[in-house]
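Annex B. Sample input.
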Amino acid sequence: MDSLKHDWLTEGLIDYEYKKYILLAYLKDVGKRFNQSELYPFMTDLIFHYRNLIKVRESKKLMYDSFPETLTKADFNKLRLTYDKIVNDDEVMQQIEEIISFAIPKMKGMLEEGKELYEFVEENINLEPVGLSPIYSDEGYLFINHDASSDVSIYRYQMTLFEHAEEKYRSMATEFLMNEMKGLSKTYENIKVELTRQFTELPNPATYLATTKLKFPLIETVLPVAKRMLVREISVS
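Annex B, continued. Sample output.
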C-alpha cells in the first residue's frame, strides 16, 4: 500500500483498530520505499496526509486548499458533506479523534526518516551550470549523471508559477529527451552544442548538470531532488 486514499479517514468502517491497521500497513510500505532510497511520490503523499490531519485536528474541518489539484471541487464537496455528518455524531467523532491522535505522531516519525534521506541525497548531488549561463534561465536542459557511470540522462525543463491557497509557488516541469554517453570526444559542453542544433527554439539554453557518485534510483530520487535544487538555484540567481 504505497499510498492512502484522500478520504481514508472517513471512508468505509470508521473504527480505531481498522484505521490503525490501514495506517500501519501504509507506513510500513513507505518505510520500505525509503529503505530502498526511493523518495517520490511517497514523500509527497505522506506530507499531504500529515498536513491534512493537522488541519482537521485544529479546525474540525476539511480545507479544499489542502487537497491536491487532482481532487475536483465536486469530489471534495461530497467528501466534506460526509465529514460534516460525522462531526455531528459524537460517538463516531470520538473514533476519528483517536485515529488522528494515533496517526499524527506515526506519520511525523516517518516524515523524519524521509527528511533524513532527502538531506543525505541532496548532500551527495552536485549541481553546476554547463558553460555560460544566459540571463533567461526559466527554460533549458538538465543533465543527470549518477552512479559514477558514463550515461547522461537529458531532460528539458520549464519553470512555472502557480498560486495555491493564496500563495505563489515556483515549480518545474521536465520532459525526458534522451540518454547520451559522455567521453573524451563527447563532453557535457559538446552535448549542449548538439542540443542547440537539434532544438533551434533554444539557441542559448540554460543548462545544468546534476552528478552523484552514489547509487540512488533515478526517477524516484535523483531527478526529483535535482529538480528541487535547480528550482532553488534559478530562484536566487
